Amino acid sequence: MDWERPYATDEEKMRLTVRLSRENVERETGGPFGAAILEAATGRLVAVGMNSVVRLSNAVLHGEIVAVMLAQQRLGTFSLAAPGLPAHELVTSCDPCAMCLGAILWSGVKRVVCGASREDATALRFDEGPVFPASYAYLRERGIAFVQGVCRDEARAVLELYRRRAGVIYNP
Hints:
- A 5-stranded mixed beta sheet has the order 2-1-3-4-5, with helices on both faces.
- The protein has 172 residues and is an alpha/beta fold.
- Helix 4 links the parallel strand 3 (88-94) and strand 4.
- The chain has helices spanning 10-26, 53-56, 63-75, 98-107, 118-122, 133-141, 152-164, and strands at 34-39, 45-50, 88-94, 111-116, 145-147.
- It contains 7 helices and 5 strands, in the order H-E-E-H-H-E-H-E-H-H-E-H.
- It is globular, with a radius of gyration of 15 Å.
């Protein structure tokens, strides 16, 4: 990772998470999902996370969860919205599942950028849980902005690569 490089656009940020998810698949170190936490104003990379469910036999180690955990640890805080911190955003290669949406609420991020859609993930038989339009409305009401479909084709291509390689679907 180039920790000094600023990521200026949503597309640059998404291509980073898509690259992480692709490397995770190609190296057979986890599922086809990657995420990053960045400072919203500067595009400075704070932490990255790749899906580690199968590799570490832990159902909660989704890319988003890992990225949030590492960002909070790196910054020494349990909230990325703690006083004195800049606003943070989560960029994820796929729309978040129900668990990750819950974690987003508590993480302190103020913006979420998504690549592939929930439908793209469920087409591979990943169970994304009870996610409804009201789930997003609830988070938006609490000040969390969502941008979906950024570089969707590139993100969806990683899901297809995982399917072709017969990757483990751990929550069918």
